[in-house]
Amino acid sequence: MRDRSDDMTATHEVKLAIAPSLAAVPATDWDALANPGWRLGAHGRLEATGSESLENPFNPFVCHAFLEALEAAGTVGRRAGWVPQHLLLQSPDGGLAAAVPAYLKSHSQGEYVFDWGWADAFERAGGHYYPKVQVSVPFTPATGPRLLVGCGPEADCKRRVLAQGLQALAAQRDASSVHVTFPEEDEWATLVEAGWLPRLDRQFHWYNEGFGSFDDFLATFASRKRKQVKRERRDALADGIEIRWHTGADLTEAHWDAFFAFYMDTGSRKWGTPYLNRRFFSLLGERMAERVLLIFAYRDGRPIAGALNLIGSDALYGRYWGALEEHPFLHFEVCYHQAVDYAIAHGLSRVEAGAQGEHKAARGYRATLTRSAHWIAHPGLRDAVASFLVRERAMVEEETEFLAEHGPFRKEN
Fold first, then answer.
1. Buried-state track 176-201, b at ≥16 Cβ within 10 A, e below 16
2. What DSSP designation does 8 have?
3. Torsion angle, alpha carbons of 156, 158, 161, 162, to 10
4. Helix (H) / strand (E) containing 209
């Protein structure tokens, strides 16, 4: 398998190739597979182009504009330890029939599905865990398409071919393993059926049950929990704090300057070295402003805190938060309550608030399973990981059920 020009024949009718940069793949071809039935116009203006959009909600993270911005900004690349190795399935006429956003990695940072223990055990036993192949949206723990096959009767067959192609890519790059993180459930099922190891994790998502207002949502809470949320919303806006939403043409470089300061403050404290650079946020604003929502908190006319969200066709995805001043409950207001306000106002079906955070449950975000699938070449490591995952899955499912039973909502009689 060579870079783009080097083919791996899957059958006599199709070929697999590797693109070392998404810039080498036409955006219209990629997007037709990633988000069938949708077109992303100038500045991220979203248009439904066919009936496929009814069954395939638009996911902003897998679109060409987002993924290529990561590469163009240099946040993804050889120096970052994320080397693009996008898998392309070519049809007999030379067109793009399917694709996978894939990266050759020399570390396990920025993935949110943790395998450091696997790597450490394998290295101590004399193996080499890195490089590995990672199928994901870098730095983005949001479920979405990973095996991009578009629509049609051959979708399942294409997924199976892509799974085989990923294993061949790992062998050719001398990688220990392939990790498909945050795939959709049908993709996960295909990989598990092909012998990949299944893994479960948990996030907290808010679901819109036809609410007309935030108060309608709060009416589903038990009385004590409802009063608690009302109090923290009130306290968050004390000291003259004002909340504003910024999106589309309203976004300016001044907004991105302010947000980058928030991001760097949080990133340097939590991760040591933040993953994204200032250039990425400018590119995001240029290419996808209509799909961006910045929720800012202002005091005395000055932005003091903010959260970055991406807007899908049916969901709001919370990504990063930061603050230059500490105020009680301001994090909850900007990241969670305001996101719910926006989703209700715009008829979105859910809010995905990112990885981890049991504190989200008290604010009405429900425990929701997320998935990953793992192919490991070494039989010994594979058996050890498989045994661990059996125990981990049982624990995650048990904890998810517990959280569902002990949420803030009223109990039905």
1. bbbbbbbbeeebbbbbeeeebbbbbb
2. E
3. -110
4. none
Q: List CB contacts of 275: < 8 A, sequence separation 6 or more.
A: 75, 80, 109, 110, 138, 139, 267
Query: Encoding tokens for residue 337?
Result: 């309550």
Alpha carbon distance 330, 233 (integer Å): 8
Residues 6+ apart with CB under 8 A from 382: 197, 376
Q: Which of 182, 245, 222 is nearest to 364 (CA)?
A: 222
Q: How far apart are CA 172 and CA 174, in angstroms?
A: 5
Q: Which two tokens stand for residue 39?
A: 């077109």
Tokens of 139: 């730095």
Cα angle value 257/299/357 (rounded, 5°):
75
- Give the residue among 376, 16, 380 at the shortest CA–CA distance from 195: 376
Rounded CA-CA distance 361/100 in Å is: 33
- The CA distance from 317 to 141, in Å, is 10
CA 382 to chain centre: 26
Matching residue, tokens 């661990």: 388
Burial class (CB in 10 A: 0-12, 13-18, 19+), 51: exposed
Per DSSP (E only), the strands in 51-167 are 82-84, 86-90, 96-100, 102-105, 132-135
Distance CA 374, CA 19 (A): 22
Q: Starting from the edge strand earliest in sequence, which strands make up the sheet with 15-19, in order?
A: 7-9, 15-19, 86-90, 96-100
Residue with tokens 């009385």: 223
**Torsion over CA: 363, 260, 110, 188 (sign):** positive
pLDDT in single tens digits along all 413 residues of the chain: 444 434 444 444 569 999 999 999 999 999 999 999 999 999 999 999 989 999 999 999 999 999 999 999 999 999 999 999 999 999 888 899 999 999 999 999 999 999 999 999 999 999 999 999 999 999 999 999 999 999 988 999 999 999 999 999 999 999 999 999 999 999 999 999 999 999 999 999 999 999 999 999 999 999 999 999 999 999 999 989 999 999 999 999 999 999 999 999 886 666 567 899 999 999 999 999 999 999 999 999 999 999 999 999 999 999 999 999 999 999 999 999 999 999 999 999 999 999 878 899 999 999 999 999 999 999 999 999 999 999 999 999 999 999 988 899 998 74
